[in-house]
């Protein structure tokens, strides 16, 4: 059996045994969700897809309403049908072939007033929705401020207006981000589980977005966001203030996940989709393909969490919020998924590439020898990018252009590919070189009060994760769901790496030989002129 497939089967078997044992016990969380009707915004995104799957597979919900809009020529129904073909739903489909009957798409747009609902759908949701998961957001760091405000700030206001009208609302969970307050002045400071002052009053920001022309708003964006690194973090910080002010009389809670990566266990190890292949997943993917060899990263502990652990936190939060509200504890609570318990050591990405065990999971589709290092220096990163990325890219493009050799699938130009990688590295470099310390007392307290059964079925105890093992799961997940090499021919992948290592050494030996020869010749010419 292929080593990568064996690793996946081992992880599946381990989790299945735990769940089978847990199902013999009583689950307060499952009981909370039994027969409920939930509304999910952002259900077509990375977190939303797995949240839908978990609710249907483990929670016996009555109905799920998914707020969605037509996109790229597809109706919301067609988009949802296409989404259900994603491998994340394979296990669910085998257990509940007709699971889709519980899922009802609702035409809407989180960026529109009233979230784009018609009167009939709005009335239906007001009557039926018991739990609302507000996951929708634009996570693009370079999103124009107008669009980011409409989606992240005004969208939160509008969905809370809907929540206020729901007759039988038991909980509203707002999914924020641990980096909502990751400002320059708070680097190396503590981020607590509390509300912070908004950078600008939400209604003022919304009015600016609604009344000021986009070109003018873009021109003043840098002055508006000031201490915040991008429009995403800035608008998520304002959105939390919307929740604070509008959620005072509602059973409201906020979950702040860090960077979200592939599943560890549920519904299958290593699952992720193309929308998640940015940030850490993009870095690891390009490294395991032999594309990226230098990472812009400082001496920090990276805040990271598997998506199934994030959604288990979200699901448990709704349960606890309902319980607290019934006990007349009506203060909104915030739950940080903390880097004090989900730390990925600084050199672990590079250690994984060089670890002997990793080599046996090498993909046969790698385009070059897999090696790498990290640096926190802009200068070193720029020089290394030219030496290890751009120069080989120009050589490769030249060779492919003048010969009949076939380019690797999906790569039209190596130079343009590295330009995109460099841009992404600079965008994420701010978060990979700076540290914030997230307090997670509320999250730990919630975990500790859960039953043994619930701690297995809705596990989010990140402190127990074996991170080197998780990195291997991440690698095979990238192979299976992104590279799509079928988790086979790993032995060939290992042999290919040995050949590529020889080619790598030969290329740079020749390259430096030519460079030094030219420098020597230039010096000789210069000396002769003098």
Helix proportion range? 40-55%
Mean pLDDT: 90
Low-confidence stretches: none
The N- to C-terminal Cα distance equals 69 Å
Largest sheet entry: 7 strands, parallel
Structural class assignment? alpha/beta
Q: How many strands in all?
A: 14
Give the strand order of the largest sheet, numbering strands 1, 2, ... along the chain.
3-2-1-4-5-7-11
β-strand amount = 5-15%
Task: Please give the radius of gyration in angstroms.
Answer: 25 Å
> How would you describe the shape?
globular
Q: Report the total helices.
A: 20
What does it look like?
The chain starts with a helix and ends with a helix. The relative contact order is 0.13. Strand 4 (131-134), helix 7 and strand 5 (171-175) form a beta-alpha-beta unit. It is built from 20 helices and 14 strands. Helix 7 (145-165) runs parallel beside helix 10, helix 11 crosses helix 19 and helix 15 runs antiparallel to helix 16. Helix content is 53%, strand content 10%. The protein is α/β, with parallel strands linked by helices and 530 residues long. Strands 3-2-1-4-5-7-11 form a 7-stranded parallel beta sheet, sandwiched between helices. This is Fatty acyl-CoA reductase.
Task: Identify the notable features of this structure and list them briefly.
globular; 10% strand; FAR_NAD-bd; alpha/beta; Fatty acyl-CoA reductase; 530 residues; seven-stranded parallel sheet; 14 strands; lipid metabolism; EC 1.2.1.84
Summed up:
Belongs to the fatty acyl-CoA reductase family. Helices cover 53% and strands 10% of the residues. The protein is built from 20 helices and 14 strands.
């Amino acid at each position: 059996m292929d080593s990568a497939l064996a690793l996946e089967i081992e992880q599946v078997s381990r989790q299945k045994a735990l769940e089978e044992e847990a199902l013999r016990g009583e689950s307060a969380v499952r009981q909370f969700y039994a027969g409920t009707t939930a509304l999910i915004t952002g259900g077509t995104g990375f977190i939303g897809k797995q949240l839908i799957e978990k609710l249907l597979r483990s929670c016996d919900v009555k109905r799920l309403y998914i707020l969605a809009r037509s996109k790229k020529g597809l109706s919301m129904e067609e988009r949802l049908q296409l989404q259900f073909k994603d491998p994340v739903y394979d296990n669910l489909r085998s257990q509940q072939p007709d699971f889709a009957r519980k899922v009802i798409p609702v035409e809407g747009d989180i960026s529109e007033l009233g979230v784009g609902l018609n009167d009939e759908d709005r009335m239906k949701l007001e009557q039926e929705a018991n739990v609302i998961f507000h996951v929708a957001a634009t996570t693009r760091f370079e999103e124009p401020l107008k669009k980011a405000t409409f989606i992240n700030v005004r969208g939160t206001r509008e969905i809370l207006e809907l929540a206020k009208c729901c007759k039988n609302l038991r909980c509203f969970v707002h999914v924020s981000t641990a980096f909502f307050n990751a400002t320059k002045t708070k680097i190396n400071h503590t981020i607590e589980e509390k509300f912070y002052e908004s950078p600008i009053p939400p209604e003022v920001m919304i009015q600016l977005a609604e009344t000021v022309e986009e070109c003018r708003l873009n021109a003043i964006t840098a002055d508006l966001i000031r201490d915040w690194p991008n429009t995403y973090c800035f608008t998520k910080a304002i959105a939390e203030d919307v929740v604070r002010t509008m959620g005072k009389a509602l059973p409201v809670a906020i979950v702040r996940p860090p960077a979200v990566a592939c599943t560890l266990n549920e519904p299958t190890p290593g699952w992720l989709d193309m929308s998640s292949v940015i940030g850490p997943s993009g870095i690891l993917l390009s490294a395991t393909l032999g594309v990226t060899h230098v990472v812009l990263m400082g001496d920090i502990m990276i805040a990271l969490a598997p998506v199934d652990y994030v959604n288990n936190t979200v699901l448990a939060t709704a349960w606890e919020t309902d319980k607290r509200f019934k006990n007349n504890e009506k203060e909104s609570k915030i739950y940080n998924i903390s880097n004090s318990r989900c730390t990925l050591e600084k050199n672990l990405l590079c250690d994984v590439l060089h670890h002997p065990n990793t080599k046996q999971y090498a993909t046969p589709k790698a385009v070059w020898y897999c090696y790498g290092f990290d640096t926190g220096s802009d200068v070193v990163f720029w020089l290394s990018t030219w030496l290890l990325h751009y120069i080989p890219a120009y050589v490769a493009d030249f060779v492919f252009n003048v010969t009949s050799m076939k380019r690797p699938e999906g790569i039209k130009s190596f130079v343009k590919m590295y330009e995109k990688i460099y841009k992404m590295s600079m965008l994420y470099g701010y978060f990979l070189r700076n540290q914030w310390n997230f307090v997670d007392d509320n999250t730990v307290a919630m975990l500790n009060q859960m039953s043994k059964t619930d701690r297995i079925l809705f596990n989010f105890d990140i402190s127990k994760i074996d991170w080197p093992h998780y990195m291997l799961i991440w690698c095979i997940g990238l192979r299976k769901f992104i590279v799509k090499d079928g988790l086979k021919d790993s032995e060939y992948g290992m042999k290919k790496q040995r050949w590529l290592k020889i080619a790598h050494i030969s290329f740079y030996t020749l390259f430096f030989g030519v460079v030094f020869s030219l420098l020597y010749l230039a010096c000789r010419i210069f000396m002769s002129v003098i």
